[in-house]
Specification:
The protein is α/β, with parallel strands linked by helices. It has helices spanning 14-30, 45-51, 65-76, 90-98, 132-142, 158-170, 192-206, 219-229, 241-250, 260-267, 281-284, 295-306; strands at 5-9, 35-40, 56-59, 82-85, 103-107, 123-125, 176-180, 209-213, 235-237, 254-256, 272-276, 292-293, 314-316, 318-319.
Length: 320
Amino acid sequence: MPEPRFLVVRLSSLGDIVHTMPAVAGLRESFPNAEIVWLTHPRWKLLVESSGLASEVWGTETRSLPSLQQIIRRIRGRNFSAAIDYQGLWKSAALPLFGGVPQRIGFSSETIREFGVPILYTDRVRCTQKHIADQNGELSLCAGGRQATASVTLDVSSSDEGAVREQLRGLGIGRFAALSPGGGWRSKCWPPDRFGALCRKIRELLGLRCVVNYGPGEEALAGAVRDAAGESDPLLYNGDVGQLMALLQNARCIVGGDTGPLHLAVALGTPSVALFGPTDPARNGPYRRGRDWSVFARLCGRISSEAGGPHRYRPVRLHA
């Protein structure tokens, strides 16, 4: 019997792609010789390739009609046996439909965010698991996988590794802690003055300088952290995906909210502390098994108290 040919759809974003990888790893372990093509946004192509889970990674820009037409023709030409839409949006569900994939697996209406999307699927999965990575794994099981999720290893290129090391060395930075103060929406973000206070404590107690990672549109937020950090003098950093992976892999730890760089750091094995406010860590928290790592969680608790007492953001002890 020939091996199945899967189209995996997860277009964006950084953290969501990371939380999809364990499910695709479960699919890969179940079908080691199968062809798995991952469809994503061009911005995240390198990230997906670094996992080594897909036979091929295709990039498409859903806001470009020529790009959509090209990718639909490409899907039609490959004769996939099944498509798994881990994203659950109209734009992600429509591509396998227009591409003529006969079996289209996705979430049921109880899980999906956009109304009506499940009508595009032939198989609708009503999830029983809490964490989004495990919910993704339920889609892999529906596709015939023997296990829902499996471990993931990301490969950071030596060129990115060397470039980031050289850049930091030129700025006098050796060992460092990474901070990721941004987030998709501001209510998820720990206040910048508290990140600044954390920079000071990390420098004072551990002798580490902080590197503050920020993304597009977060320049003012990063600047506010630097202003609040005072003489601890954190470095503000903004790089492409490959450079970000190299930075996070070499950090002694990362502290951040429910944001992509935090989840990426956990996938890379970096000791991590997440600060959760309005989002539920049981569903969206970092997804990694390993030993407890709590030094910075305790430190964040102290900073919380010193920076204004109880508030709705709570430090969450994670795994290294």
